[in-house]
Amino acid sequence: MGIKLPIEAEKIIARSLSDRFWGADPKHNFYVRAKNVVISGDLNRSILAQIQNEYEGDLGKDFSHQWEELLEEIVYCIAIDGRIDADEKIYFKEYISIFGISIPDAQMIYRKGARRAYMDIVIRLCRDDELSDKDLELLGSIAKHFGLNEHEEDAALQDQLKRMVQASFDDLARGGMVSDTAWEEFTEHAAALRVDFQLDERGKEAVERARNRWRVRYGQMQTIELHGDYRLKSKEKAYYQGVASWLELRSNAGVVEYMNIGTGTIIMTDQRVLFIGQIVSNKSIGWNKLLTVKSHGPDAFELEKETGKSPIIDVQRTRASLEALASQIAYRLWKDSVIT
User: Fold this and answer.
1) Cβ atoms within 10 A of the Cβ of 82, count?
2) Beta carbons of 206 and 173 less than 8 angstroms apart
3) Which terminus of the chain, N or C, has less C-beta within 10 A?
4) What is the pLDDT at residue 302?
């Protein structure tokens, strides 16, 4: 009886003169010799008995942990092709008999090795970013062939697929920007793997922020519908609306500093920035009238004018997905107006 195992043999460690002098334990070499016989795929009892006779002790008991780990690895290597043949099952029985592994322990080790192989088969089948009905049928037959619990493996399959989709999502979101195309491809990927990928509110906001950041960065912002009775010029497009404070440099007790002179609605269009104040008068500044837009953080920006006061718009964050991009949106709109 012989089977093929893709496990490399270990080298016998030569004992040096100092090892002998200090009495280093040579027992490991006996284990290595026996292991190499085992992984050759031929459980030659006579050779193993000879090694045992040379060994002062019980190889099975003294290296029980190693034999159990090796058995799991052998099960995995055999099962990774999706099948376990009759001669391979005979090999398992011989193995546990030779090394004195109890039936319950052997069954547990078998399940661990077979389950590892099953999960790797799942990953291999999903390399094309989809899982077909045929693939699912194949996985079901493999689980049954391995003697694995169908319900447990179905749950394990779903967990594995969710981990794969989550890893794809983490990789996608890592850069802080997500294009509309990339997000569409990701959702198609999740659907192809039959995973109902759901985000909580924070996750949804994070994705929307990442998508908006990409749109702002590459000039593909989406227009918005204004809330309230605000009228724009003909063909003017609105890209942002929020609540903000208008800050200007003022002298206070001999100290010149930025002071909040009013709160109101801020609207940014392709042509200008509008401030409809509750205390101060309404203001409208064309982007082409500005030298630049300076960021003072994600929610605040300075409108640097050639003459007169250069105010700072400090946006009140109410929805992180948009307010955290206020200064970037302002800069993008100003830059686009300069280019055009």
Assistant:
1) 16
2) yes
3) C
4) 94
Q: 24 pLDDT band (50/70/90 cuts)? A: low
Q: Specify the pLDDT at position 25.
A: 60
Length of the chain: 340
Decide: residue 117, CB within 10 A, 0-12 exposed, 13-18 middle, 19+ buried: buried
E strand segments, the chain? 238-252, 255-269, 272-277, 283-286, 290-295, 300-305, 312-315
Query: What is the edge-to-edge ordering of all strands in the sheet holding 238-252?
Result: 283-286, 272-277, 255-269, 238-252, 312-315, 300-305, 290-295
At 215-266, the pLDDT tens digits run: 888 878 889 999 888 989 989 999 999 999 999 988 887 788 888 888 999 9
SS3 115: helix
38: which 2 tokens? 């085992």
Q: How far apart are the first and last CA of the chain?
A: 80
With a cut of 80, say whether residue 13 has pLDDT above it. Answer: no
Q: How far apart are CA 145 and CA 136, in angstroms?
A: 14
Q: Where are the domains of the chain?
A: 17-148, 160-217, 238-339
Percent residues over pLDDT 90 in the chain: 37
Cα–Cα distance measured from residue 326 to residue 268, given in angstroms and rounded to the nearest whole number: 9
